[in-house]
């Protein structure tokens, strides 16, 4: 028992058959799951949003966000190989700090993963409607946008969530194999973008490099000139941050990895390292190929850049691949979300029935369907930038908890075997914690308020319902 409630053992007690996941994933599946989660809406869509806040300096925003995420990824890799349980940051906090903090982290992860799925679905909708327009089939604005963007409901976003949820219900290994194929297709499309755009590279597009400065300051919203927002490199980094995380979805699969010690390390560190390189190349190519102002507010900035210099065929191919492959991000995060719900239910902090898995597919069916309904509702009615910022708030909370948990377990249990050990762990933890707090401070005030309101509601649920039913608190 700690100051923050009971602790969870590092080695989880055996689960009964109805609450036990199947070990079917190797490290290639996990690397593909990580790359599939990381390379998605962040680079395909949010590069435009970030460029609108920072100008060409968005490249530095990518670097700052990537550094913070790299620190967190190292901490995740150590804990994922040390604690072979599903649940990601929720489980690590439960083991290291206690149940109350674990609940806050788990509640924040519910926010993160749900909103990420919704954000990516909205981003996919932008590419889908743009592609359909190019083919001569226009989807009515009322059915392709939420109310804030002048529509009624974002129907394409709802549809793609339903398709991905159906795929997950088929089985974990089957969906992971298809994910691997689609990730390879997505990387090939990004390589095509670089090959087509590089001949149009113009260094003049990088001047001025910091038109809105580095530190956050108030300025007019490009979409709503009468509304003030935070501009600068750091505010852009707090949004672009969304483009880097996804490796944490790999850690939710610890109980489904064939060899957790080896597979989790390769999956987390390998996917993060690959994506840092991909992002820096794509960002530099995009800005060099077209002035920032020309794509800053586009829902499909990379396809727009291709069309801007007459490569309509390449733009159509790119848009088609984005439509086919972008759902891998939804798949990875919807997978992660269902596993967070699953573990919290198995710990009896949520209704225990949600933790039951299908005997043949090994999938928690009730959780998968319920999660799909929630994220579809969010995607149907909210705009992309707003929900992306809210997702970042939940993720930053989780990353802080993981870095702190790594340090706590280093001090409390220094002799335990760690398949992967973070070098200079204290320094990495400081970079992760301070960087996350700094990025959180630069998020829009409305996003910060919504995050704290969400967690206030969560604490009410915890003390009124979950705490008394917790499995860890019982003999």
From TrEMBL:
Pfam families: AA_permease_2. GO terms for cellular component: membrane. It is found in: Membrane. InterPro entries: AA/rel_permease1 (IPR002293). Keywords: Membrane, Transmembrane, Transmembrane helix, Transport. The chain crosses the membrane at residues 30-51, 57-77, 89-110, 149-170, 182-201, 228-247, 268-297, 317-342, 363-382, 388-409, 421-443, 449-466. Gene3D superfamilies: Amino acid/polyamine transporter I. Its main location: membrane. It is a multi-pass membrane protein. The keyword Metal-binding does not apply. GO terms for molecular function: amino acid transmembrane transporter activity. This is Amino acid permease.
């Amino acid at each position: 028992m700690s100051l923050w409630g009971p602790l969870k053992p590092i080695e989880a007690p055996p689960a009964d058959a109805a609450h036990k996941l199947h070990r079917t994933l190797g490290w290639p599946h996990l690397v593909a799951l990580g790359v599939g989660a990381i390379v998605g809406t962040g680079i395909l869509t949010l590069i435009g949003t970030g460029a609108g806040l920072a100008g060409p300096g968005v490249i530095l925003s990518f670097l700052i966000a990537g550094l913070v995420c790299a620190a967190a990824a190292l901490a995740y890799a150590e804990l994922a190989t040390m604690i072979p349980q599903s649940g990601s940051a929720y489980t690590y906090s439960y083991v290291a700090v206690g149940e109350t903090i674990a609940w806050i982290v788990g509640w924040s992860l519910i926010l993160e993963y749900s909103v990420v799925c919704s954000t990516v679905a909205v981003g996919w909708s932008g590419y889908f409607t743009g592609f359909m327009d190019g083919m001569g089939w226009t989807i009515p604005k009322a059915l392709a946008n939420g109310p804030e963007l002048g529509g009624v409901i974002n129907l394409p976003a709802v549809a793609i969530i339903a398709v991905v949820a159906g795929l997950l219900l088929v089985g974990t290994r089957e969906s992971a194999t298809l994910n691997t194929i689609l990730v390879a297709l997505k990387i090939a499309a990004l390589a095509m973008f670089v090959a087509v755009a590089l001949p149009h590279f113009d260094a003049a597009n990088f001047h001025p490099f910091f038109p809105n400065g580095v530190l956050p300051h108030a300025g007019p919203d490009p979409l709503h000139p009468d509304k003030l927002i935070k501009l600068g490199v750091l505010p852009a980094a707090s949004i672009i941050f969304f483009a880097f995380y996804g490796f944490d979805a790999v850690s939710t699969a610890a109980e489904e990895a064939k060899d957790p010690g080896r597979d989790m390390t390769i999956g987390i560190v390998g996917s993060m390292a690959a994506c840092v390189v991909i992002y820096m190349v794509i960002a530099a190519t995009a800005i060099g190929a077209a002035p920032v102002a020309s794509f800053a507010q586009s829902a499909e900035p990379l396809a727009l850049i291709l069309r801007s210099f007459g490569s309509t065929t390449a733009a159509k191919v790119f848009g088609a691949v984005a439509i086919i492959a972008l759902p891998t991000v939804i798949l990875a995060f919807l997978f992660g979300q269902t596993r967070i719900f699953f573990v919290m239910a198995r710990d009896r902090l949520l209704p225990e029935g949600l933790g039951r898995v299908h005997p043949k597919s090994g999938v928690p069916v009730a959780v998968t369907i319920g999660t799909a309904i929630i994220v579809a509702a969010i995607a149907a009615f909210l705009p992309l930038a707003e929900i992306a910022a809210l997702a970042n708030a939940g993720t930053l909370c989780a990353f802080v908890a993981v870095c702190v948990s790594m340090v706590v377990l280093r001090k409390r249990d220094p002799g335990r075997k760690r398949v992967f050990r973070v070098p200079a762990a204290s320094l990495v933890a400081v970079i992760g914690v301070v960087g996350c707090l700094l990025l959180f401070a630069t998020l829009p005030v409305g996003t910060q308020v919504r995050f704290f309101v969400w967690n206030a509601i969560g604490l009410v649920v915890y003390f009124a319902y979950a705490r008394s039913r917790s499995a860890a608190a019982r003999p």
